[in-house]
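Internal QA ticket QA-208
Title: Verify multi-chain structure generation after dependency bump
Assignee: T.L.

Test input:
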Amino acid sequence: MSGSAPAPIVAVDVVIFTIDGGRMQTLLVQVPDGPCAGAWAFPGGIVGPEESLEEAARRELRARTGLRGVYLEQLRTFGDPDRDPQARVVSTAYVALIAAKTNGARRGRYADVAWVPVDRLPRLAYDHKAMARAAVERLRAKLAYTNIVYGLLPPTFTLSELQRIYEIILGRPLDRRNIRKKLLASGLLCALERQRRGAHRPAALYRFAHRRPVVVRML
Amino acid sequence: MSGSAPAPIVAVDVVIFTIDGGRMQTLLVQVPDGPCAGAWAFPGGIVGPEESLEEAARRELRARTGLRGVYLEQLRTFGDPDRDPQARVVSTAYVALIAAKTNGARRGRYADVAWVPVDRLPRLAYDHKAMARAAVERLRAKLAYTNIVYGLLPPTFTLSELQRIYEIILGRPLDRRNIRKKLLASGLLCALERQRRGAHRPAALYRFAHRRPVVVRML
DNA sequence: TCAAAAGTGTTGGCATTACACCCATGA
DNA sequence: TCATGGGTGTAATGCCAACACTTTTGA
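Actual output:
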């Protein structure tokens, strides 16, 4: 059992997505030490002895954003022996979705923290480039057959805002009338009394009937 | 970093599916020792210091079945602190698909090894019940939008055999004409010259154009 | 000749797409 | 009043599901 080779370190990394400024953004941190010091990476940390993987991911998420009760799902586990030059680290990646403006990126133990558009990612440490690809793919795919967009939206929103989020993530325009029909027919939305007043005609506000993941054909 | 708590053990488990006797079957082993000794579980093992997770899963698969070059994909990682009563074990589960009759279940370090229909699973050790559920769900879902059935079929097969596999896994009958149209139109199959002669009218034999995972709408 | 599986096309319904005009508001 | 985004219905198309009879073989 306990041979001479050191036991692998078990860690989690969290790819946190938000939509802001018309773009998909992720939270990156600067690796504080080791051979990769200064490089950008997704925030992560070692899993505590009494903690589940998801708990560790939520802890890290909370440390970076101050948020709890956020949508979080396991992506996959990266465990190649040489993925971290410093030690054998097996890391389970999670994807988290948060609404724009709810976040104030917190440095904590990191030198710096930044929201970066996913189409402008810098060179990333470890195998985090592959992690980023996998996370974006997963998000795109799951938008089509689940209601997880709710994670990216504030409690109330207009149909146009919802449509815009789909368009940003999928990278293509959607027909307003068609998507409204589908969304309203899905039964997942509740119309509110209130309206959002902006520079132009006010828009009806909606909320999600439940903020829990459901598999439903959305697109 | 290295506190007093022992580092978690990093392991893999493999859920091996095959279709035989008109049923989905999985390979189970009897846990050799520890508090769960005698209970059934999916075969698994500790990840070696120089091994990737997938390599460890392939090694285990080969040790149990003698097979290599098999379809294998990561399912997810199970890491609850109390999932194994004996030690903290973080285990990444894999799903493997093999063709019937290509396997001779090998005991190795286990007391016993058996192919068991997935709808007749005994009580399983650890959190392997959840693992089984997740594996079956994944397989069902992925059949619809990828060509991974090839993993369950021998090199050549008839369209009826292919249809039968879909029916067994999905648990519902499929229309012969409709599925033939889709399969032949998909361009994934090559018709062979040979025919399979059985008790009745001979059937045309086919093979897959490539035995690599491709995302294609199949159902 | 009979039983059992292989093989083959057409049709109707449903879902998806494409598309254009009027409305309400703030500036 | 004008610019901007909000709100709405219909028609054409393509996709999918339902459906029955003939063929070939071994027994």
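Spot checks passed. The helical segments of chain B are 53-65, 128-145, 159-170, 176-185.
Status: verified.
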